[in-house]
Design a protein that fits this description.
By secondary structure, the protein is an alpha/beta fold. Helices cover about 20% and strands about 30% of the residues.
Amino acid sequence: MPASLDTSALGFPVEVTNISKELKKLWETTGGTQTRASLINFAVYFRGLEGSGQNTEFIKDFTREHACRALLICHEPNSTEDKVSAFINAHCHLTRAGAKQICCEQVSLLFEGKTAGRIANTLFANLDSDLPLYLWWQGEFPETIDETLWSRVDRLIYDSQVWANPKEQFRRLRDSLGELGHHEASAVVSGLPLMTKPVRTRMRLLREAFAFLQPQAPFVQFTYAVVPPIPRLAGVQVEASERIWLNLPPARVWVYRNG
């Protein structure tokens, strides 16, 4: 592994084949003062080790309210080595009574070089029993997506913040899901800064999203602006929430439905 790759934020290194064994040993050393809790498998895919610290901190806060086994999937495709590494740690929080700590596991998987084809099977092998799998995909989808990854995902969350070409990203996702017979999405939730884009760009984005959605499925947009982020269009139903003053800055939620 190149010296420039700092894996310290990912946790304690273990052999990929020994993840379950090492997690079991981790809980055997607690002396009964800590209880493991998990209701879902929550996986986060991101590219570049620089995101490992931020995502670990997010998981630490997330597990205060949501018991889960967290699985960080870090992809370093530009590494000179073809290697898969694993790390484990736990996030523990005191119960309201303060007598015992409730802990959630974090399994971090580092895929270097040309190992993308091993992501799905390695992830599936380390899920917590038959609990639901939620996958948060950060960044852009690659041109070729291993469609077997979607076969076990119960909820897919994708992060469009850095998408340079939303239409192309929607196409890649639609084509990949189409291989499994899933052709339409049930909702799109957007936090894109639409008010910084030309009106024609905003309208085009909405039309492209509708092409990907089920009939009457919502396109949800958060905005700080006092005017609609997307102008009213013929045949499009529009709803708006009251202004949420407790949010800083105050925000409003707009919902668009086709037809």
